[in-house]
Amino acid sequence: xxxxxxxxxxxxxxxxxxxxxxxxxxxxxxxxxxxxxxxxxxxxxxxxxxxxxxxxxxxxxxxxxxxxxxxxxxxxxxxxxxxxxxxxxxxxxxxxxxxxxxxxxxxxxxxxxxxxxxxxxxxxxxxxxxxxxxxxxxxxxxxxxxxxxxxxxxxxxxxxxxxxxxxxxxxxxxxxxxxxxxxxxxxxxxxxxxxxxxxxxxxxxxxxxxxxxxxxxxxxxxxxxxxxxxxxxxxxxxxxxxxxxxxxxxxxxxxxxxxxxxxxxxxxxxxxxxxxxxxxxxxxx
Length: 285
Ligand code: BG6
What we know:
Blueprint: E1 2-6, E2 12-17, E3 21-26, E4 31-37, E5 64-65, E6 90-98, E7 101-109, H1 112-117, E8 122-130, E9 134-142, E10 148-150, E11 152-154, E12 157-159, E13 167-169, E14 175-178, E15 183-186, E16 197-202, E17 208-211, E18 215-222, E19 226-231, H2 233-239, E20 251-258, E21 264-266, E22 271-282
Antiparallel strand pairs: 1-2, 2-3, 3-4, 5-11, 6-7, 7-8, 8-9, 9-22, 10-21, 11-20, 12-20, 13-17, 14-15, 14-16, 16-19, 17-18, 18-22, 19-20
The structure holds 6-O-phosphono-beta-D-glucopyranose.
């Protein structure tokens, strides 16, 4: 079943439930902010103090960062991670594929507002397939008469038991840009987190796996060769209005991306799809 819902302030979202999963998608940002297998803990993390307000970004789930990832390369006054995550998308269609799988397709295209921030005509489609496996496929189409460059990320926040007990497998030997130290580095072994981590891994061979005490989450991707791993750690949480002070303990972002260093050039009429496919397996004895 797919239903339209809204919060008291009229902030609209879709609630999806089928035999296997429950999910919620805000129309603002085409933002999947809840996903859980029936009877299990949510797979995606959502901040207890997230905003659900027009124009404010939801903290958690899967924000869509587009058409630039991170700070705008030349204009620091433009919004971090682009404007797609704070724009209201149009619901293009929904489908019950089978009793365990639902599909939602949302669309964003250029407007007078977007053209002021980024001077190109585009169409963006996000197809979210909600089943035992979760997939998000973001298709960017150049509808302009000139080529443009984009960076993008499906900024997935994963819910974890405790940051001290998790590790990320699949990135060993990969080069990364460390945004905290602003240095290039190479990953040795698995990634464990014991302080602020903000890294762009390049030339990644998916899948990347997040091992927690009671489950392993596999993150696969297509049309992406970079992965961001982000945990803000304590001081940054304290300074963020939409994160509890200790929120860093229960979340980790692993983002399938076309990050700087892996930017895409799209010629007029050309399109590209960035897909992330997420599955999990319980490791409870
Ligand atoms: C990560 C970036 O993807 O997103 C970090 O690598 C950034 O640098 C983080 O701090 C959160 O960004 P925002 O804009 O949602 O606070």
